[in-house]
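Please fill in the sequence for the structure shown.

STRUCTURE ENCODING:
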């Protein structure tokens, strides 16, 4: 099925880019600074359809660390390889109003709320690592490459950022304490850090969104990145939990599954239609890119992508 964009879609992206470029709000995350990616002005918008049409504007070829945008993708990998029961015995599917790197709820409930917050994502990395200590990293990189449409690469300063991740180390020890993960905490955290420090540019990330929009097949390469039957779970948790502790606001305002990372990227998916990616590193208090949220909201409105909104008669 052809998912052709409206004829004026490229002009719409150009207009929105110009509208949001002067916006100067938010601050950079320490993880971004640890990677040496200052890039306050780095701003790009890309849109990729489920059949592979790609539009973009701005600094669309500058790679940046995908950070938590990796979380839904690793969650999908765990569903593919370990199955739903094994994953959800240890990680719940509830949204949370706690910060993404909180230990509080884990301490109270002894189980991470969902795979989109650090406690849940580290559990998933640990499950994958313990299932196959020697092969998990290669499997992850291959899977990410299938989404991106080219071999996945690490940020050159990935190891620097791992050294400062004491809060994640504390989360991992609590997970071990509650018997949710195995003994090899360093191995689990190494995998988690590797997933966060894979780099992609905005066009490639739009294709990640388009792959999810396309039932798990990368529209440009034709390669399957995730089993078709698991796409639904990934998109559902992106919708309910993908935007940190403002996921409810996002669902209410935009109506699309999305995932943000503290590097300043956000992907959003219009299932069956297209993926959007925006990069702009300055973040709001929840950890979501200020400009990316505004730009994606405007694109979604311009294209009538919110499935809950009444559509104008054509
Ligand atoms: N590497 C970051 C961390 O674990 C990723 C967090 C994020 O993007 O939400 O704190």
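FILLED IN BY: designer on duty
SEQUENCE:
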């Amino acid at each position: 099925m052809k998912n052709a964009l409206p004829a004026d879609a490229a002009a719409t992206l150009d207009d929105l880019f110009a509208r949001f470029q002067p916006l100067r709000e938010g601050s950079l995350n320490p993880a971004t600074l640890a990677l040496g990616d200052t890039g306050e002005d780095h701003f790009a918008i890309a849109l990729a359809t489920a059949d592979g049409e790609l539009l973009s504007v701005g600094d669309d070829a500058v790679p940046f660390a995908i950070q938590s945008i990796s979380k839904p993708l690793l969650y999908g990998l765990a569903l593919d390889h370990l199955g739903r029961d094994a994953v959800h015995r240890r990680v719940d599917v509830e949204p949370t109003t706690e910060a993404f790197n909180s230990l509080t709820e884990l301490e109270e409930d002894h189980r991470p709320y969902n795979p989109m917050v650090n406690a849940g994502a580290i559990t998933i990395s640990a499950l994958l690592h313990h299932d196959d200590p020697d092969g998990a990293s290669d499997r992850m990189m291959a899977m990410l490459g299938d989404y991106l449409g080219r071999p996945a690469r690490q940020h050159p300063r990935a190891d620097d950022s791992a050294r400062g991740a004491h809060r994640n180390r504390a989360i991992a020890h609590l997970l071990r304490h509650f018997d949710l993960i195995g003994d090899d905490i360093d191995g689990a955290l190494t995998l988690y850090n590797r997933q966060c420090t894979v780099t992609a540019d905005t066009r490639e990330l739009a294709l990640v969104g388009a792959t999810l929009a396309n039932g798990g097949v990368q529209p440009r390469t034709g390669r399957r990145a995730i089993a078709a039957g698991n796409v639904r779970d990934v998109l559902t948790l992106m919708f309910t939990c993908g935007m940190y502790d403002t996921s409810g606001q996002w669902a209410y305002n935009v109506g699309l599954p999305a995932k943000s990372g503290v590097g300043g990227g956000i992907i959003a998916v219009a299932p069956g239609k297209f993926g959007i990616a925006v990069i702009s590193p300055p973040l709001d208090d929840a950890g979501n890119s200020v400009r990316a949220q505004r730009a994606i909201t405007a694109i979604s409105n311009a294209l009538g992508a919110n499935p809950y909104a009444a559509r104008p008669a054509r």
